[in-house]
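question for whoever is on the cluster today: can someone run the full assembly for these? two chains, 642 residues total. i dont have access anymore since they changed the login thing
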Amino acid sequence: MHSFKELSQLFATHFQQKHFPAQPSNLYEPCDYFLQIGGKRIRPILTLLGNELFDEINKDAFEVATAIELFHNFTLIHDDMMDAASLRRGMQTVHTKYNSNIALLSGDVMLIKAYDFIAKIKSEYLARILQLFNKTAAEVCEGQQLDMDFEGRENVSLDDYIEMIGLKTSVLLAAALQMGAIIGGASEGNCNHLYQFGLNLGIAFQIQDDYLDAFGNPEKFGKEVGGDIKQNKKTFLFLHTLEVADEQQTQQIEQLIQENPADKVLQMLHIFKECNVDAWANELKEKYYQIALKHLDDIAVTSIRKKPLVELANFLIERES
Amino acid sequence: MHSFKELSQLFATHFQQKHFPAQPSNLYEPCDYFLQIGGKRIRPILTLLGNELFDEINKDAFEVATAIELFHNFTLIHDDMMDAASLRRGMQTVHTKYNSNIALLSGDVMLIKAYDFIAKIKSEYLARILQLFNKTAAEVCEGQQLDMDFEGRENVSLDDYIEMIGLKTSVLLAAALQMGAIIGGASEGNCNHLYQFGLNLGIAFQIQDDYLDAFGNPEKFGKEVGGDIKQNKKTFLFLHTLEVADEQQTQQIEQLIQENPADKVLQMLHIFKECNVDAWANELKEKYYQIALKHLDDIAVTSIRKKPLVELANFLIERES
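^ ran it for u. tokens below:
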């Protein structure tokens, strides 16, 4: 059995392989460029963790892990186009460095290459994994569409937001784990608990991400604080504030959004604090975190095997106290 | 056994099913819209033909045929974006009717849904068909990239063009046939001959398409004649003309491209005729058509079973005399 860190290193080494042919270079070079921007590679490691929870790592887990990482990068290339983002991790996005047509087609071919790795696995679970991969991939697109829809919509509830986040980010974490479990020969019940562990952990992680964007230490967080507020993003904090704000606060919020004053972030943070959203967000995160752990607990394997997954959860989620 | 026309009707009925969920409507309604624009549905019928060449039609052939038609429509949605085309078959393209972000994401999800139909087929040939589907899909992207590359390149040879056309359009016809053959239980040798039949027929068809754009009867062709010339497209005719033109003709061509006179189409057609490209194109088409038929001939089944494929070839390729 491997620790989370060891699996991370194992995958990094495996992923250094060349994934694309050399020609046509205008199609495949942007793919290589984007992959070397890097990332934490959390999702493929989840597949290895899911496999090793039930059995020794099978080489098929590496194929599926690679497919998942390529799929994730395909979504980033196309999401960057939709968001008109010029930078990712401090590097130029594909449509900025090359052009929109190249980013469109390179993203397409990266998605297709993801399926090429799925096609390599043993036929005994190929159909099941392919179906889960397809379902998840479509859900991620649905989540991205809902996210875009919400930008232009006034009446977004907290439940709408949780549904969107679940689709846009959590289902891929959950499915990455479950695909590993399928390869490891897990029962359907265990597979479902592992999926729910991933789903709820993903939502807890997003609550934390929204929280840190408002209240985080900028040096530690690695992003400018208040970015979501500047962009009027409908986050967990913003939506809850709207739900609990009194009339005066609601008016203030509407004014801040319309008038965009220089101290908008400070003023909005002040309202957030008046409404106690910081404490509320921590409680909500803790709630989803505990649901995740409960599902991990319910998986019928010895607790020693679950240790790397607990490590992962602790790595992703900063706990109060 | 069914005629080409009967299979066409069978597929049309089958394809009327609902392929997408209702929500999120901004994601799936554009997919439904684009599919109802219609088309000849040649590619899925090829899969049914490929199947029935060797055995009774298996319901898996309909799944694969649906996947291929969805894949083809995904490429059209994204190609329309890359070409900034506002109309297709007289209807608004997706990015024109909705917007670029919606066209991007609807195309993505249509590709993913294509794989969902592949995932339904029997496990005995799932891996083989998935691998062929992936290879073909990547090749179609490569062909599209080469096509875009050629626009900005001066030195495109006829061989470059044939390679590009092969990737961009013919491999999908060839693979559609071969997937049907695999489902029909064909031997590898027969599969390969059928693939080559499709590949060469596709190239003959493209030569004809380029020819008709220049010399076709506009009423019969259904498109404005000379469209390729107006857009300075590097077609079979144009590339061959450049290869055989004398110095004076070459100068004339360069002038026409630079100056874009009102009678450019007439003048270019005049040079085409001086260089005898019309006769040359018909010979080249005939050459590929004959290669295609030779491969069909070499398939080890009784010739009566090949009749629908001969009908198809005759439907696609207009013969002189």
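summary bc i know u wont read the tokens: The longest helix of chain A spans residues 123-151. The first strand of chain A starts at residue 87 and ends at 88.
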